[in-house]
Amino acid sequence: MKIVLANAAGFCMGVRMAVDIALKTVADEGKPVYTCGPLIHNPQELERLEREGVISLGDSERIPAGPVVIRAHGVTPETLERLEREATLVVDATCPKVSKIHDRIKEFSSAGYAVVIAGDEGHPEVVGLLGYASGDAYLINAPEDIDKLPDMEKVILVAQTTQDEENYDAISERFAERFLKGEALSTICKATHRRQEEVRRLAGEVEGVVVIGGKNSANTRRLYEIAVEEGVKAWHVEKPEELPIKELGALSSVGVTAGASTRLWLIHEVVDVLEKI
Ligand code: SF4
After folding, report:
1. Does domain 97-184 have CATH number 3.30.70.260?
2. How far is the CA of 150 from the centre of ligand 1 (A)?
3. CB-CB contact of 208 with 255 (8 Å)
4. Which of 7, 74, 152, 263 has the fewest CB atoms in 10 Å of its CB?
């Protein structure tokens, strides 16, 4: 079976940076180091990090004495204040691309703009983004949600960094029609763009696509959905044991991609199994 591995598969810069910062904090400060919520959406990598001394806490869990690393998704200003009060040390590993959106929201909000965020309700990055809006803020997910918004003069639109590009384009178009003075910012991360484009292309070249990553990872799920939309057989797996060996054995070519939180070693383990089919 021919295996085509996507170039953009796996860890993005922001997640890689957060993991490196957490491990460096363990090296500098000793075990354990806490993270406010899981550092990445990948159970296998989280287990590995836990063995190295990086412990993930629930969002509202009390912070034990010790250093806390803020993950790539970022947190609200209120959470940051709470961490600074409770933790012995706060290390900020918010992805610079997410911090940039925080700054834009803060800047526009304090100038009297309402903020419309295109994102997934409850996603930690979105919770963080909403926290930076000091005035009115609205969360939407689809182009038709624009019609449900109140009339507004000063308004900006931003996207969660891992939103689907086609959906955000449609939302932006509707936003521009409805809010003539509104401003739509382009905040989808290039890493997300590259991964989505590549899986679209891969789907046209192979008979099946294996997407590796946490079942709770929105960007990984989106890659799987894109492959399905492109009309190819697709599987979303977290580890090699989940591969449907029999079904894959019937294919002559398979593409492999992975979400932003998937480590290279896990991708290699999956490819090793595929190579033996
Ligand atoms: S997907 Fe992009 S914005 Fe999100 S953490 Fe990775 S590099 Fe940062």
Report:
1. no
2. 31
3. yes
4. 7
Q: 89-92 and 114-118: which strand pairing? A: unpaired
What are the boundaries of each domain within the chain? Answer: 2-10+190-276, 13-94, 97-184
**2-10+190-276 against 97-184: fold identical:** yes
Q: Given the CA of residue 95, which atom of ligand 1 is nearest to it?
A: 8
**Is the CATH number 3.40.50.11270 carried by domain 13-94?**
yes
Respond yes or no: is residue 125 known to be catalytic.
yes
Residue 115 phi, psi (nearest 5): -120, 125
Q: Which residue has a Cα nearest atom 2 of ligand 1?
A: 189
What would be the CATH architecture of the domain defined by 2-10+190-276? Answer: 3-Layer(aba) Sandwich (3.40)
CA atoms within 13 A on the CB side of 183: 11
Catalytic hit among 47, 78, 125, 165: 125
Let me know: does 71 contact 134? Beta carbons within 8 Å.
Answer: no
Q: For 233-260, what is each residue's pLDDT tens digit?
A: 999 999 999 999 999 999 999 999 999 8
Q: Which residue has the tokens 């046209």?
A: 204
Which residues is 234 bridged to in the sheet? Answer: 209
Q: At residue 260, what is the residue type?
A: A
Ligand 1 near 189 CB (within 6 A): yes
Lowest mean pLDDT among 17-26, 61-70, 97-106: 61-70
Q: Helices (H) and strands (E) in the chain — how many of each?
A: 10, 12
C-alpha span between 107 and 110 (Å, rounded)? 5
